[in-house]
Amino acid sequence: MDLKKEQFCKYVIDEGYKDYPMQELGEIYERICKNEIKTDTLKSEKTYQRLGAFFTNDSTFLSNTFVEGQMFYKYGRKGKPHDRLVYFDEKHENLLWCQYENQKKSKVRKIATADIHEVKIGVDSSQVLFSNRVDDYLDNRVFSIHSTKRTLDLMAPEEAVRNRWVKYLNNIINL
User: Fold this and answer.
1) Between 144 and which of 27, 126, 132, 150 could a Cys-Cys bridge form, CB atoms 3.0 to 4.6 Å apart?
2) Is the pTM of this model over 0.70?
3) Structural domains in the chain?
4) Rg of the chain (C-alpha set)
């Protein structure tokens, strides 16, 4: 490479990366010189790595909690809330929910993980929850998942479950 390390660092900084540490820029330069440029990994792999590190190094935790799913009350535009199994597909590309009776899934619906842009907590986190007049005493158990096309409005069986799912979802959307 004809470009010297100092020139490379100056160029990168001039292009708007002023806050990037010089040491890291130097390491990037060295990798480029050694032809160690690596392509982006799949989004699902990035999700797994980040969330695996976030919770534990035990991938069983991810599998059991978020792929097998959790029962929630789902609020809709009409009618009373109803039980739904909420879970991720194996690659964490979709958040799914369905009726779950007698160990059988039916009427599966989904939101693409890439379409989720916000997770809000509390009884005022969506128009659907407001319209359903969810009681304030449930504030610590309800949350809404906002995507580009819809919201998914849920009530967890307890606050700890809600917090775990909200934390997980926020990590996914902040990748």
Assistant:
1) 126
2) no
3) 1-38 (no CATH), 43-173 (2.30.29.30)
4) 21
Mention every residue, 6+ apart, whose C-beta is less than 8 A from residue 38: none
d(CA 37, CA 40): 10
Q: Which two tokens stand for residue 88?
A: 């991720």
For the residues 59-80, what does the mean pLDDT come to? 77
Report in angstroms the alpha-carbon separations of 29 from 5, 6, 34: 6, 9, 9
Residue with tokens 């964490």, as numbered in its chain: 92
User: Could you tell me if 169 and 163 are in contact, meaning their C-beta atoms sit under 8 angstroms apart?
Assistant: no
165: left (phi over 0), alpha (psi -120 to 50) or beta: alpha
Res 28: pLDDT: 78
